[in-house]
Amino acid sequence: MANLLFSFDDLSTKDRATKQVAKYFTRAGAAPVQVDVSPQVRRTSDVSYRELLLVFADSQKVVLRIKQTGDIFQVLLNGKVIPIRAQDDHAKAIAEVVNQLDAGRSAFQQKLARTKVKLPPSIRTAAPRMEQVLTEKRDALKDAITQAELELSKRKAA
Known about the structure:
Structural class: alpha+beta
CATH topology of the largest domain: Nuclear Transport Factor 2, Chain: A
Oligomer: single chain
Strand content: 15-25%
Largest sheet: 6 strands, antiparallel
Distance between the termini: 100 Å
Protein backbone atom coordinates (compact mmCIF):
# COMPACT_ATOMS: atom_id res chain seq x y z
CA MET A 1 0.00 0.00 0.00
CA ALA A 2 1.30 3.43 -0.87
CA ASN A 3 1.21 6.00 1.88
CA LEU A 4 -1.44 8.67 1.58
CA LEU A 5 -0.29 11.99 0.25
CA PHE A 6 -2.83 14.80 0.19
CA SER A 7 -2.85 17.73 -2.19
CA PHE A 8 -2.89 20.63 0.26
CA ASP A 9 -4.20 23.25 -2.19
CA ASP A 10 -6.81 21.00 -3.81
CA LEU A 11 -7.94 19.22 -0.63
CA SER A 12 -11.64 18.39 -0.84
CA THR A 13 -14.07 15.57 -0.13
CA LYS A 14 -13.71 14.42 -3.74
CA ASP A 15 -9.92 14.20 -3.51
CA ARG A 16 -8.44 10.74 -4.19
CA ALA A 17 -6.52 10.62 -0.89
CA THR A 18 -9.62 11.70 1.08
CA LYS A 19 -11.63 8.88 -0.49
CA GLN A 20 -8.83 6.43 0.33
CA VAL A 21 -8.84 7.53 3.98
CA ALA A 22 -12.59 6.87 4.18
CA LYS A 23 -12.07 3.48 2.51
CA TYR A 24 -9.30 2.50 4.95
CA PHE A 25 -11.47 3.46 7.92
CA THR A 26 -14.31 1.37 6.48
CA ARG A 27 -11.99 -1.62 6.01
CA ALA A 28 -10.77 -1.23 9.60
CA GLY A 29 -14.35 -1.50 10.85
CA ALA A 30 -15.44 2.12 11.37
CA ALA A 31 -17.22 3.53 8.37
CA PRO A 32 -17.42 7.34 8.43
CA VAL A 33 -20.90 8.72 7.83
CA GLN A 34 -19.62 12.21 7.05
CA VAL A 35 -16.34 13.46 5.64
CA ASP A 36 -15.66 17.19 5.61
CA VAL A 37 -12.64 19.33 4.71
CA SER A 38 -12.15 22.74 6.29
CA PRO A 39 -11.63 25.39 3.62
CA GLN A 40 -9.43 27.68 5.71
CA VAL A 41 -5.77 27.21 6.46
CA ARG A 42 -4.91 27.31 10.16
CA ARG A 43 -1.60 27.70 11.90
CA THR A 44 -0.26 26.35 15.17
CA SER A 45 3.32 25.88 16.38
CA ASP A 46 4.62 27.40 13.12
CA VAL A 47 2.84 24.71 11.09
CA SER A 48 0.18 25.63 8.55
CA TYR A 49 -2.47 22.94 8.16
CA ARG A 50 -5.96 22.12 6.97
CA GLU A 51 -8.34 19.77 8.74
CA LEU A 52 -10.05 16.67 7.42
CA LEU A 53 -13.01 15.76 9.66
CA LEU A 54 -14.45 12.24 9.79
CA VAL A 55 -17.69 11.71 11.73
CA PHE A 56 -18.80 8.18 12.59
CA ALA A 57 -22.25 6.69 13.27
CA ASP A 58 -21.86 6.98 17.05
CA SER A 59 -21.03 10.74 16.74
CA GLN A 60 -17.33 10.29 17.45
CA LYS A 61 -15.08 12.58 15.43
CA VAL A 62 -11.59 12.11 14.06
CA VAL A 63 -9.75 15.15 12.74
CA LEU A 64 -6.66 14.70 10.58
CA ARG A 65 -4.48 17.80 10.40
CA ILE A 66 -2.69 17.92 7.08
CA LYS A 67 0.47 19.99 6.52
CA GLN A 68 1.37 21.88 3.38
CA THR A 69 3.65 19.02 2.37
CA GLY A 70 0.57 16.80 2.11
CA ASP A 71 1.20 14.50 5.06
CA ILE A 72 -0.72 14.14 8.31
CA PHE A 73 1.03 15.71 11.27
CA GLN A 74 -1.62 15.41 13.98
CA VAL A 75 -4.67 13.26 14.72
CA LEU A 76 -7.45 14.36 17.06
CA LEU A 77 -10.00 11.93 18.45
CA ASN A 78 -13.06 13.71 19.87
CA GLY A 79 -11.03 16.89 20.25
CA LYS A 80 -8.00 15.32 21.96
CA VAL A 81 -4.63 14.77 20.32
CA ILE A 82 -3.72 11.09 20.20
CA PRO A 83 -0.30 9.53 19.59
CA ILE A 84 0.12 7.19 16.64
CA ARG A 85 2.78 4.46 16.78
CA ALA A 86 2.75 3.31 13.15
CA GLN A 87 3.30 6.68 11.52
CA ASP A 88 4.93 5.28 8.39
CA ASP A 89 2.16 2.80 7.56
CA HIS A 90 -1.16 4.57 7.13
CA ALA A 91 -3.24 1.38 7.19
CA LYS A 92 -1.80 0.43 10.58
CA ALA A 93 -2.18 4.01 11.83
CA ILE A 94 -5.85 4.02 10.84
CA ALA A 95 -6.29 0.63 12.54
CA GLU A 96 -4.83 2.20 15.72
CA VAL A 97 -7.30 5.07 15.50
CA VAL A 98 -10.21 2.64 15.00
CA ASN A 99 -9.06 0.63 18.04
CA GLN A 100 -9.06 3.82 20.11
CA LEU A 101 -12.51 4.68 18.74
CA ASP A 102 -13.78 1.28 19.87
CA ALA A 103 -12.06 1.47 23.25
CA GLY A 104 -13.52 4.87 24.10
CA ARG A 105 -17.00 4.29 22.68
CA SER A 106 -18.82 3.55 25.96
CA ALA A 107 -17.21 6.48 27.78
CA PHE A 108 -18.04 8.78 24.87
CA GLN A 109 -21.68 7.62 24.84
CA GLN A 110 -21.95 8.17 28.60
CA LYS A 111 -20.54 11.67 28.17
CA LEU A 112 -23.10 12.40 25.45
CA ALA A 113 -25.91 11.09 27.64
CA ARG A 114 -24.89 13.40 30.51
CA THR A 115 -24.81 16.47 28.29
CA LYS A 116 -27.82 18.67 28.88
CA VAL A 117 -29.20 20.52 25.89
CA LYS A 118 -30.78 23.86 26.63
CA LEU A 119 -33.57 24.82 24.27
CA PRO A 120 -33.50 28.30 22.79
CA PRO A 121 -36.04 30.67 24.37
CA SER A 122 -37.91 30.94 21.06
CA ILE A 123 -38.85 27.25 21.19
CA ARG A 124 -41.90 26.49 23.27
CA THR A 125 -42.91 22.96 24.15
CA ALA A 126 -46.55 21.87 24.02
CA ALA A 127 -46.39 20.06 27.39
CA PRO A 128 -47.49 22.96 29.68
CA ARG A 129 -50.39 23.86 27.38
CA MET A 130 -51.37 20.19 27.01
CA GLU A 131 -51.41 19.79 30.79
CA GLN A 132 -53.72 22.78 31.12
CA VAL A 133 -56.10 21.42 28.46
CA LEU A 134 -56.24 17.98 30.08
CA THR A 135 -56.86 19.51 33.52
CA GLU A 136 -59.77 21.53 32.12
CA LYS A 137 -61.22 18.39 30.49
CA ARG A 138 -60.92 16.47 33.77
CA ASP A 139 -62.66 19.26 35.69
CA ALA A 140 -65.42 19.42 33.07
CA LEU A 141 -65.95 15.65 33.35
CA LYS A 142 -66.10 15.87 37.15
CA ASP A 143 -68.78 18.58 36.83
CA ALA A 144 -70.73 16.45 34.36
CA ILE A 145 -70.58 13.45 36.72
CA THR A 146 -71.78 15.59 39.62
CA GLN A 147 -74.69 16.91 37.50
CA ALA A 148 -75.59 13.37 36.40
CA GLU A 149 -75.54 12.13 40.02
CA LEU A 150 -77.81 15.02 41.08
CA GLU A 151 -80.22 14.26 38.24
CA LEU A 152 -80.20 10.58 39.18
CA SER A 153 -80.89 11.32 42.86
CA LYS A 154 -83.79 13.67 41.88
CA ARG A 155 -85.40 11.00 39.72
CA LYS A 156 -85.02 8.36 42.43
CA ALA A 157 -86.61 10.70 45.00
CA ALA A 158 -89.58 11.49 42.75
